[in-house]
């Protein structure tokens, strides 16, 4: 019985990972940027006043990872940095016309299918899922815990 359940769980993980990978490949082929870059671009378009630390928090990624993503978007000229007029020490991030064009053609949801699904689940189901996944993660190598601070498209 346990072997049957383990195989069923393995297939379920494959379905989830496969669906997520498919969505990220669709984003890259349609937009020319990664899923994490698209989500960050969307967050900047929605909240241009946010700094890097708050953007990292919104995407549930590490601040240094977020900074790297911002720099990639700047280099691709999809966003630009601009000093905020009220406080010249703060830098605002603005989506360029090229960035708006990328967002306009992006497959939905721009923040990825998995965050959307998790956000739509009720608290009880999320708690059960979290508890079960904690059991799985506890059996993994300690070095893998840092992977939780990276966007799934970058894994």
Automatic annotation (TrEMBL):
Keywords: DNA-binding, Transcription, Transcription regulation. One of its GO terms (molecular function) is DNA-binding transcription factor activity. PROSITE patterns: HTH_MARR_2 (PS50995). It comes from the Bacteria. The keyword Zinc does not apply. Gene3D superfamilies: Winged helix-like DNA-binding domain superfamily/Winged helix DNA-binding domain (1.10.10.10). The keyword Membrane does not apply. Residues 6-138 form the HTH marR-type domain. This is DNA-binding transcriptional regulator, MarR family.
């Amino acid at each position: 019985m346990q072997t049957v359940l383990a195989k069923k769980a393995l297939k379920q993980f494959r379905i989830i990972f496969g669906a997520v990978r498919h969505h990220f490949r669709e984003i890259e082929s349609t937009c020319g940027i990664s899923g994490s870059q698209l989500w960050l671009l969307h967050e900047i378009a929605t909240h241009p006043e946010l700094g890097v630390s708050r953007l990292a928090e919104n995407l549930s990624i590490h601040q240094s990872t977020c900074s790297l993503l911002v720099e990639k978007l700047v280099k691709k000229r999809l966003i630009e940095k601009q000093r905020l007029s009220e406080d010249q020490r703060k830098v605002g991030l603005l989506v360029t016309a090229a960035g708006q064009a990328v967002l306009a053609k992006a497959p939905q949801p721009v923040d990825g299918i998995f965050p959307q699904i998790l956000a739509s689940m009720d608290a009880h189901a999320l708690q059960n899922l979290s508890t079960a996944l904690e059991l799985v993660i506890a059996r993994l190598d300690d070095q893998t815990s840092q992977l939780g601070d990276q966007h799934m498209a970058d894994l």
